Model the fold of this input.
Amino acid sequence: MFLEGMHEKGLFKENDMIRVVLNTAENFDYPAHWHNAIEIVYCIENGVDIRIGSRYIHLDEKDILFICPGEIHGFKAQEAKGKRAFIQFDITSFGGLDEIISAFNPLVSTFKLSGAKHGTLHKKISEQIDGIIDAHNKKELSYALYLKARIYDIFFLLSTSADVDIMTDSLKSRKNKIYGLERLNKGLSFLENNYANNITLKDAAAAAGFSEYHFSRLFREVTGKKFLEYLNEFRIRKAETLLKKTDISISEAAYAVGFNNTTTFNRIFKAINGCTPTCYKARVRSNQAYHTELHHIK
Done:
């Protein structure tokens, strides 16, 4: 799995149609991204905040979120420790779901299930998810078939329930959004490959095949930021990496990531990080020295 711009690709290994990830990363924080798969997020321990487009959804422990294809989303845990299950699958690999899609189309909608609000439905779907996690852990003979059966069960339960609050979207609208995201992703890839150069909104729009106006509007809608704001933040993150891992000077770091002068670099760096690049570098060096000394003591 890898990110190309904001497009998350390579989710499935050859012949796999379902991906199950159990995440226990501390201070979990995953950037905004999108993919063509349907995703089920299940909070096993502690909660997580999820940005869906321009809105935020909080999941408490045991809450479930269904994320539809093409939806921009990112994750940030509220507590240092936690455990989350991510179940992703491509609906095109599931033959025979046409009747379910026709009857009830959660596959183009993002919605949340909680025990307090959805009671029995939440309990039944939680049991199916627990079964998926257990089968994934054991990986016994024909477990892939078992996973697929549980996905069918989940969407059967959804298709026969009226007890779901859905942020609806038409299938045509969803396909159009994915197409727009694929084109926007070309602009993001251009930015990430050329951030060290003197690039403009016009350059990125041309790379994506949009007019400046349309690209600017779509870019802000998807990322929540203006193009220049996003570009500057991206450059600063790259500069942080240089300052952490090399003996590069402040001015060298500034020019290496695309800034034309150190004054602008210092100002934007401080606005984003709350400290100057010089203070940041000194802090990093101090932490590195501390951990080195601690290692020698042990």
Notes: The radius of gyration is 22 Å. The CA atoms of residues 115 and 221 lie 32 Å apart. The longest strand covers residues 38-45. Confidence is low (pLDDT under 50) at residues 289-298.
